[in-house]
Amino acid sequence: MLIYGKNTVREVLRLSPHLVKKVFYLPGKEGLIPGESRVPAEKREKEFFDHSFSHLRHQGIAAEIASPPLYDPGYLEEMMGPSSLFLLLDGIQDPMNLGSILRTAYGMGIDAVVLTADRTVDVTPAVFSASSGYAGAVPLVRMKNPAHTVKQLKKSGVWVVAAHMKGEKEAGDPSFSPLFPLLLCMGSEGSGVRRTFISEADFSLRIPQREGFDSYNVSVAAAILLWELNRLR
């Protein structure tokens, strides 16, 4: 895939250089490539960028990269520790939301992000752009059989929490003291997290909000809950 934009390309070169096959740049934009980069770079004219990134803010630099690896759920059990925190995303269709959440997950040191195979958008150039390049730096897991996988994770000692507006526990409550390792399950604003995750969850979690307020954008909600869980672990 082709990713674009100076911040996105530079962060992928810094954090995930193994994914990068080649960098492309406009004449005069050589300075956007980090001096320590060992990735092949090729000068391309304006027509290449106009054709490849019509109406996108490419800033004169792009890179061809391999798609980040998608591990199977066994990865979670292999690298799980006593304080592991995993995030499961179910039904996130907006690349901007997914990219923003992946950036937050990297910043907070989340151990892995799980993407449901049938309802969540793929990791695309738009996701990389929205994540400012951090999409390739977070371990990603693809979940194909939610019910079986969640049951297996619980047997391995993972606590499962489902986030929704009527959750029994409230983030920020002084009495809220979850156990780890923990898997936080989140869905989109529209459909929410599927019933499978709610029924299998050890408890549900809500964000306090004022009366009459609809809901937070899922990327904002993820940032709030991940911050709180990261603090508690």
What is this structure's SSE topology?
Elements: E1 2-4, H1 6-15, E2 20-25, E3 41-43, H2 46-52, E4 61-65, E5 70-71, H3 74-79, E6 85-90, H4 95-107, E7 112-116, H5 125-130, E8 140-143, H6 146-155, E9 159-163, E10 169-170, E11 182-187, H7 195-200, E12 203-206, H8 218-232
Parallel strand pairs: 2-3, 5-8, 6-7, 6-11, 7-8, 9-11, 9-12, 10-12
Antiparallel strand pairs: 1-4, 2-4
Helix pairs in contact: 4-8
Overview of this structure, please?
This protein has helices spanning 6-15, 46-52, 74-79, 95-107, 125-130, 146-155, 195-200, 218-232; strands at residues 2-4, 20-25, 41-43, 61-65, 70-71, 85-90, 112-116, 140-143, 159-163, 169-170, 182-187, 203-206. With 233 residues, it is of the alpha/beta class. Helix 4 (95-107) runs parallel beside helix 8. It starts with a strand and ends with a helix.
